[in-house]
């Protein structure tokens, strides 16, 4: 296994490794000094398969794919595609020598910009980069190559210019528009379209259209995007980027939505069509795209999750009113919520018990819980923007059961279906702690959670003692340790499991 450190040399001293630029699922990229024959030297970027790939049994197959694409890339020449200078072999490992691009990748740039100026980049600047990368992708598609991993981290910005360059062709593959082939299901969640979640599926220019439209979505909103399979399985419609950034023009907003349509047949079929749609304003009005309705004019029907289909909708609950001062930011809102929740012991999990009872442990389809004669209750959720202002309210419902803990004491347990949530806070958020990053999607199995803080009566019924200082049957329990709480959850799980196994 080869892993280079600063100062190591390759090709008998031709290259000296300076540092690692990045390491991903497949590759590892180094910055290196190349010593030229005339005595001059220059920086280059060197990429090879990473140490994890090097020890895999299918290493040679991956290296072969890597090499195939590298040869093609070497023959390409486009101002917005990284230039591959050379491919070399050293101890059975292939390396790609590329031009070294001085500057940040777009992901780093957006983060720095946001941290420094506390605002998002302007639409005009974003469109400049998108147009350049869009043209690079048209060039690739015309030569039968799909990139398949377009995202801000794979776009370099040349320092002190407004020039974007597409990099990272580790997952790029040949394609024939609309032909079904077996593809590896490597993907970056949020940017990857639904067809990349299936190994055998048609691919086409529209696959990279989704990822580039998602890149633009992120650039203008700085919001992590819900993964496509989650949008499909849970029937969650994509929120227009304008929801998060009112400064986005309607035109750009609509083109992003069209490019990010869930199903490929609803997207512009080629990158050229999408760019035409996006940049229509800038170009000539004669360029009106053919048969591409803009989403606001022709909205796609909202898909309902499987569990909600053919079900009557729940009555709208009484609205909750929240008052807050204007400097009540998103962070304060969250901290306030965490304080309100954390002050008492509110949550506990009965995950293991549910494993066998619900059929959803392997995927994220939301099941119902008819087995436990559950009740339904309605509530409202709110979404806040960076300033803590409510930008969206939604009426929802959840199922719960009333568990008898003994001595007439009950506890309401809400069923939390399996699914995904975005954990952590965005890197640019003021006042965040390092431990809150990196923001990422987390998949959880279904579990039950106490609807209210645990009362002293409930604690006594389960544990047989009351540790609280401020006594009161219906007061929240306090003066308990983490281990006590774990024990409590375990016991409630046992009560629940016992009842379920005797009543089913
Ligand atoms: N030619 C280059 N010049 C300067 N920096 C580069 C160059 N190529 C890559 N980088 C930097 O290194 C990072 C990682 O490189 P790259 O995206 O090619 O691979 P990766 O994402 O780590 O791996 P994988 O191929 O497994 O996805 C990039 O995000 C970029 O910041
Ligand atoms: Mg990359």
Report on the structure:
With 504 residues, the chain is of the alpha+beta class. It folds into 3 domains: 9-99, Phosphorylase Kinase, domain 1 (2-Layer Sandwich), CATH 3.30.200.20; 103-295, Orthogonal Bundle (Transferase(Phosphotransferase), domain 1); 330-428 and 436-503, no CATH class. Helix content is 29%, strand content 21%. It has helices at 51-54, 59-75, 106-117, 123-142, 205-221, 228-234, 250-259, 271-278, 330-342, 351-357, 456-463, 482-503, and strands at 9-10, 15-23, 27-35, 41-49, 84-90, 93-99, 145-146, 155-157, 164-166, 173-174, 180-182, 200-202, 375-384, 390-406, 409-416, 419-423, 440-444, 447-450. The strands form 6 sheets. Strands 1-2-3-4-6-5 form a 6-stranded antiparallel beta sheet. It has a 4-stranded antiparallel beta sheet with strand order 13-14-15-18, sandwiched between helices. The longest helix is centred in the last third of the chain and has 22 residues, at 482-503. The radius of gyration is 27 Å and the shape is elongated. Mean pLDDT is 80; it is low at 282-326, 340-344 and 355-370. Bound molecules: adenosine-5'-triphosphate (ATP) and magnesium ion. Magnesium ion binds next to loops.
């Amino acid at each position: 296994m080869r892993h280079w450190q600063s100062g190591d040399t390759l090709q008998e001293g031709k290259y000296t490794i300076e540092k690692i630029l990045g390491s991903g699922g497949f590759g590892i990229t180094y910055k290196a000094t190349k010593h030229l024959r005339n005595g001059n030297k220059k920086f280059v970027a060197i990429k090879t398969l990473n140490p994890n790939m090097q020890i895999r049994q299918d290493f040679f197959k991956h290296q072969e794919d890597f090499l195939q694409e590298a040869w093609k890339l070497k023959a390409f020449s486009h101002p917005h595609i990284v230039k591959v200078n050379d491919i070399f072999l050293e101890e059975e490992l292939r390396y790609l020598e590329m031009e070294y691009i001085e500057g940040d990748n777009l992901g780093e740039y957006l983060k720095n910009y946001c941290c420094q100026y506390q605002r998002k980049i302007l639409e005009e600047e974003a469109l400049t980069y998108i147009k350049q990368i869009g043209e690079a992708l048209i060039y690739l598609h015309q030569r039968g190559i799909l990139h398949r991993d377009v995202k801000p981290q794979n776009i370099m910005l040349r320092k002190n210019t407004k020039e974007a360059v597409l990099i990272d062709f580790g997952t790029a593959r040949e394609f024939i528009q609309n032909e079904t082939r077996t593809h590896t299901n490597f993907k970056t969640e949020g940017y990857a379209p639904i067809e990349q979640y299936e190994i055998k599926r048609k691919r086409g220019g529209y696959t990279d259209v989704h990822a580039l439209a998602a890149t633009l979505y992120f650039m203008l909103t700085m919001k992590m995007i819900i993964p496509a399979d989650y949008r499909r399985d849970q029937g969650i419609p994509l929120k227009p980027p304008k929801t998060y950034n009112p400064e986005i023009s309607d035109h750009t907003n609509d083109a992003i939505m069209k490019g990010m349509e869930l199903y490929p047949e609803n997207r512009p079929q080629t990158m050229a069509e999408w760019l035409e749609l996006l940049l229509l304003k800038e170009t000539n009005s004669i360029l009106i795209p053919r048969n591409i309705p803009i989403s606001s004019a022709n909205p796609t029907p909202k898909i309902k999750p499987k569990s909600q289909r053919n079900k009557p909708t729940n009555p709208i609950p009484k609205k909750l009113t929240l008052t807050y001062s204007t400097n009540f930011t998103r962070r304060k809102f969250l901290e306030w919520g965490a304080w309100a929740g954390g002050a008492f012991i509110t949550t506990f999990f009965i995950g293991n018990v549910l494993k066998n009872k619900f059929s959803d442990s392997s995927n994220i389809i939301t099941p119902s819980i008819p087995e436990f004669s559950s009740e339904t209750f309605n509530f409202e959720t709110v979404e806040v923007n960076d300033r803590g202002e409510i930008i969206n309210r939604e009426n929802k419902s959840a199922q719960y059961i009333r568990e008898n803990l003994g001595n007439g004491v009950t506890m309401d347990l809400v069923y939390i279906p399996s699914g995904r949530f975005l954990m952590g806070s965005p890197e640019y958020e003021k006042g965040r702690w390092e431990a809150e990053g990196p923001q990422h999607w987390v998949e959880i199995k279904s579990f039950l959670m106490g609807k209210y803080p645990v009362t002293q009566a409930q604690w006594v019924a389960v544990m047989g003692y009351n540790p609280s200082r401020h006594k009161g049957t219906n007061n929240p329990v306090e003066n308990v340790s983490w281990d006590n709480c774990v024990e409590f959850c375990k016991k409630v799980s046992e009560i629940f499991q016992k009842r379920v196994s005797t009543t089913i």
